[in-house]
Amino acid sequence: MYSIVDSDNPSQGSASLIPGRRHEQHRVEPRGGMRIGILATDGIGDVICASGLVTDVRRAWPDAKICMIVRFREMASLFGGASRIDDVIVYDPARGNSPARVMTLIREIRRRRFDTFVVVTDIDRHKAPCLTLVSGARVRVGEAASPLARLYSRTIPRDATEHKVSSNRRIAALLGIDAVSPPYVPIDPADATAVDRALADAGVQPGDRLLAVHPGSGLAESHKRWSIDEYEAMIRQVSSLTVRPILVGAGGDVALCDILQTRLGSSVLSFAGKLSLSRSAALLSKCALAVGADSGVMHLAAAVGTPTICIFGPTDERRTAPFGATRIVSANIPCRPCYSKLPHGCGNPVCMSGVTVAQVVAEANGLLFASAP
Questions:
Q1: Given phi > 0 = left and psi -120 to 50 = alpha, else beta, which region is 278?
Q2: pLDDT tens digit string along 217-241?
Q3: How large is the greatest C-alpha to C-alpha distance in the chain, in angstroms?
Q4: What is the CATH number of domain 3-173?
């Protein structure tokens, strides 16, 4: 067990988890009880991309006290308990940065007396260096992405053309760590049992092969979605391969999944909005294949070892695809990727509509036939 402190609700206290100027490469000298803070206040996919860094830090210093600073309480479940992390601070920048909230966060960080403070790739280039300084940590590492990077004690140049996992490995190397671990999300046996029960209750037989489909992409990023009509056509064709389609996603994906389920009938099951993050990981681990666009769900599928087909449009798969994604499908559109220039889309995402049902079905056929018992 480990403690979680929600800096947006400090009165609750601790609770157990429920459901740049220098490019030094020398190793941080380990000592008993070393305290390490890791700032990863971004989305699920980004936190999963940092999970390998956490594994490498734990391997390098098995006796260290590692504290993750993440956006949502449930993200702590991605690390599988005290084998990788000891403590969690919850802080969601999307809820605003009022002086009271920021001071609460700073107080929680200062209270832990960190020796080392790590900022993973793509975290706010202005606020993150300031947090490392006020942490009081002697070793402060991150990317040199703004003039404020001088507040770090060691930096790497930011490279937006490399995968986020590779960027995080370079950040870990600033600590003298041989960073090699891929993203990994462990499955809690209790979650696996609960998911088995839910599948059985829904009529899934032990020998059924499952096709996970995630039609969403986050509430603010609908331009990254493939259309509902295309998902429907794809599911109708792929489900003929003796696989049982299941729809997955968070609460914001329920409406999309309800539309698909209504169109496709009772043969398609929807678990959207019904499972915790850790149980979603357990469900995805039981699937023969997962299909979806650029989203945290697809990162989760890849991190539990499930083959993935990821449909990319405005975002750059070189940077943000699930690490080790099995297949990437995209349209040959000269204006893509555009996400770094137009984060809310161009209003006419031809890069997504240019991906055909036939392309995705062909990839699914190949993967499902190849893995057929």
A1: alpha
A2: 876 688 899 999 999 999 999 876 6
A3: 60
A4: 3.40.50.2000
